[in-house]
Design brief:
By secondary structure, this protein is mostly helical. It contains ten helices and three strands, in the order H-H-E-H-H-H-H-H-E-E-H-H-H. It has two domains: 32 residues; 203 residues, Biosynthetic peptidoglycan transglycosylase-like (Penicillin binding protein transpeptidase fold), CATH 1.10.3810. A three-stranded mixed beta sheet has the order 1-3-2, covered by helices on one side. It is globular. The protein starts with a helix and ends in a 13-residue tail after the last helix.
Amino acid sequence: MGPVKRAFCLLGILAAAALLLSVAAVLTLRFVDPWTSAFMVDARVASWFDDDTRPFRLQYRWRDYETISSQLPLAVVASEDQLFPMHRGFDFRQIRKAMDDAERGRRSRGASTISQQVAKNLFLWSGRSWIRKGLEAWFTVLIEALWPKRRILEVYVNIAEFGRGIYGAEAAAQAFFHKPASRLTREEAARLAAVLPNPVRLRVDAPGPFVQRRQREIVRQMAALGGTAYLAELQKR
């Protein structure tokens, strides 16, 4: 076998190994709660080089779905991905809208679903590149294929960033409202969801006009969806 064929053979073996490893990692995390995420690691490393004089303190405490107020999963669905119970990882209607808005030079809220955000936050790095987007799509397909919808939402509300170094429902509830995640009210859950577009710049503890408007809109959307009953179907998916 010549050197070129050996190189292609080696690349094929490496690709197959990476594929199998990714499947094993996603399947494992269906049953094992993640102790960290790629974004948490990235944030800690970035804190070594940024200009922020405040010491970086990572706050993260896993809580099972049943011990988190149902208002928070509803709030993030109302805010981020209202078709979450129905789609299979990608909201193609929103993707088309985002592309149309980009062509017209208009700003769009983005087209990432909750499943895509779990894939990105849990396994990948921040930034924009075609390689990262491709890996995000691959992990999204795996997550949707191997996890039930409720598990996807459980992981999302546990690893989402709600402030500098503050990850997940429990850490956010304790840091901002001095209570466990199980006791979050509708308005508190909506305020947490309101900062998700940019949890470093937007503040839960000092909400500006944008966060306040967004919070009120999320509360209206939660009611329009039918309240927490909207997520009842997740038990079956």
